[in-house]
Write a structure and sequence with these properties.
Structural class: mainly alpha
Largest sheet: 2 strands, antiparallel
Low-confidence stretches: none
Helix content: 25-40%
Strand order of the largest sheet: 1-2
Mean pLDDT: 82
Distance between the termini: 125 Å
Shape: elongated
Strand content: 5-15%
Length: about 350
């Protein structure tokens, strides 16, 4: 009688375990499938992000599509989500604000690539895909100016440590090396540096018919800008059109600056000196013949490629009889004395003598 009883008990125990597994699996699947209001947003720390997401262009995209699930990345994601739960219910809470660490940002970036492959390919082809090694081990720049904390304002905005945690020595004398070699090939300007995913906006609406002139009319209502500056100190984005347009000067003269809100983000990193003089420091504000143009008038989105930009405005032959594509400017070759951002007519043409 003992063997059958033991066998029956084992079968009963096995059945209970299977039942528990089914319940857990069903509950897990149900949790991932249910609306965020009943799952993610049930944690009060996440409610603000959820409320913004519900008004954003990504509101049709579920939380798990970008942030993954507890088992989406194996043990790593399970450990991460479990740590959040223990932190929430633990006696010592580090913070009520659940923010993304840099490793989380890079994981979200992988989700961005799944839907935005063309944009990602363009970004890879441009200068904004620079890595930690490209920026912080740049011998020419480090020899002129030692690495310092404000570097993270534009490069490595999501880096979790300080400049002394990243690179050594902190001086203008090299050789320099990364204290965390694994970061060498990581991007310093990931998607989330300029693109706040949780931002009030309307979904992209494509014309129902390209034959309908009203559907493709160029004065149709515009959406909010899709970009925003990530403020490392505040751990938040400020939407591009909420940034102040700076006053810029050429000597004592005030110059015209484009109203394009995206250019205001460009100016945060490609910024002038304290006196807002155009062309100083890393500023690229156009003056001269191109005064008032937006960066995007010449530079393509994501790749920043300016090739063939002249042709979008100029005919093959200009009014002065010269081919704009062959003029002696930095557009033609980088070592030209005539910077395309600051050139004037008299840079190439002798002034007409007064009569």
């Amino acid at each position: 009688m003992r063997k059958p009883d033991r066998k029956r008990r084992l079968l009963t125990l096995f059945g209970i375990l299977v039942l528990i597994l089914l319940i857990l699996t069903g509950g897990y699947a149900g949790w991932n499938a249910t609306s965020p209001e009943r799952s993610c947003a049930s944690c009060h720390e996440i409610v603000p992000s959820t409320e913004i997401w519900m008004q954003s262009a990504h509101r049709e995209v579920t939380c798990s599509d970008c942030h993954g699930t507890a088992l989406g990345n194996g043990f790593h994601s399970l450990k991460e989500k479990s740590a959040m739960v223990f932190s929430h219910f633990g006696k010592k809470k580090e913070s009520e604000d659940i923010g993304l660490k840099e490793e989380n940002v890079l994981e979200v970036m992988e989700a961005c690539i799944k839907c935005h492959r063309d944009e990602y390919a363009s970004w890879q082809a441009g200068g904004h895909s620079a890595t930690y090694a490209d920026i912080f081990l740049n011998e020419k720049h480090n020899a002129m100016e030692r690495p310092y904390p404000d570097c993270f304002r534009c490069h490595g905005m999501y880096y979790d440590g300080s400049i002394s945690d990243l690179v050594e020595p902190i001086s203008t004398d090299g050789p320099w090396k990364l204290k965390q070699p694994e970061k060498a090939n990581q991007p310093v300007i990931p998607c989330l540096a300029c693109h706040p995913i949780h931002m009030e906006n309307s979904p992209m609406v494509h014309p129902e018919s390209m034959d309908d002139p009203y559907a493709i009319f160029y004065e149709r209502e515009e959406r909010n800008p899709l970009t925003g500056l990530y403020l490392r100190s505040d751990r938040m984005h400020l939407r591009a059109d909420k940034l102040l347009k700076p006053d810029m000067y050429l000597g004592e003269d005030v110059i015209l600056v484009s109203d394009d809100p995206l250019q205001r983000i460009c100016l945060q990193c490609h910024s002038p000196n304290w006196a807002h003089q155009a062309g100083t420091e890393d500023d690229r504000t156009p003056v001269g013949v191109h005064e008032g143009l937006s960066c995007r008038a010449c530079h393509r989105g994501h790749s920043n490629d300016p090739r063939k930009a002249c042709q979008t405005c100029h005919p093959a032959v200009s009014s002065c009889g010269l081919d704009v594509m062959t003029m002696n400017t930095t557009y033609l070759h980088s070592d030209s004395p005539n910077n395309i951002h600051s050139m004037h007519c008299i840079d190439c043409h002798n002034p007409i003598p007064a009569i």
